[in-house]
Amino acid sequence: MSAVTDRPIDADLLRRHDVAGPRYTSYPTADRFVEAHQGGQHLQALRQRGTAQPLSVYVHIPFCEQLCYYCACNKIITKHHERAQPYLDALAIEMDLVAEAIGGQAPVSQLHLGGGSPTFLSDAELTTLMAALRQRFKLLPGAELSVEVDPRTVDAARLAHLRSLGFNRLSFGVQDFDPGVQKAVHRVQPFEQVAALMRDARELGYQSTNVDLIYGLPLQTPASFAQTIAQVAELRPDRIAMYAYAHLPQRFKPQRRIVAELLPPAGDKLAMLSGAISALLGEGYTYIGMDHFALPDDPLAVAKRQGLLHRGFQGYSTQPDCDLVGLGVSSISRVGATYAQNAKTLEEYEDALRQRQLPVQRGLALTRDDLLRRAVIMALMCQGRVEFESIAASYLVDVPTYFAPEFERLQPLADQGLLVMEPGAIQVTPLGWYFVRAVALVFDRYLQADASRERFSKII
Fold first, then answer.
1. Which of 216, 134, 175, 167 is nearest to 457 (CA)?
2. Residues whose CB falls within 8 Å of the CB of residue 250, separated by 6 or more in sequence, listed in order
3. How confident is residue 1, by pLDDT bands cut at 50, 70 and 90?
4. Do 106 and 137 form a contact (C-beta atoms < 8 A)?
């Protein structure tokens, strides 16, 4: 056993855990989906769930006007805005098929528009999309309605329109404020532009704003990224998501435009992370986990303190654990004990819907072992604690016996002060929250059996 340590996060510990691993927005992870799981299985899962329980809905808008070189998202680069309407038509058909399978208007407690750039759509198209959603789903009073915003594509009037459509949360893609870094990744947006939009959002009554950052981009240095962090702190967003850049040009074609020699060395990348954590904590932010920070009075921080965090394909959430319906090209659904992912190309997606078929291309029906391990991994990722008694009651297993090999692999992490092995629980320490992904992956049966982890980003 190991005592809880108050040893501060340091570069040696960061370096030790700088290995590749999943982000666990799901378990099993999406790379384990199989093409044998098609629309028929997804249709059956939707029919079985019905309309009794609230849903979370994600809509993927793949279009962007400009290419960001770091991007690993499913996107279509085009300045032809007329391409949006056929896509909206296809989305409407998909909504019809989902609503028909579910058996009516399912209540929705959370809606998120992502991309790509949802703000590629015009105000009129956004209005059409929201009307289509409201026609087929019942957006509950107080539902969390969020949208990803490219600061280069909006102004105060557009934010006002989004607010009139019911959106109450905004996520701004910033990445970095340094002009040289912005130019190197082909995403130029001055600090003053984002600052003005943040002021507009507050005046318009948005409940929450989030800023996305990336460290490890070309030309970044610990000093330059510290300046970006200081500027973000000045803006005082309610939430901050800070991701490590994973340079995988063999998988993501846009990244081939990044000059590898301009990427910061590993030591500098670790310094950016540790410096940013210290700075944001010093500014009063709460570390939520997995690169996420929130102001102490933000619902996400409150949920963490109360042990009520949840995690899904959009990251951490305050929403109770519920089924997710993903709409649009490449979107992923989680319904019951199944996952389903739509076709990744626009042509395949729209062709399936022209035939009034769900555009599912692959997915997974979870086994009992998958469900058990998902429960353990999500408890670690969200509460930082696994209670053996509750797992045993739900899955009828003796936890120490079932996970004997995993417990043995946990011991070095306990010796490093990242967790405590209690008689009836695993408890992640305050220090261990910064490495919770390293703790979770111990229970990933697929990853432990897989010698190669190239498909994943590094933990740090």
1. 216
2. none
3. very low
4. yes
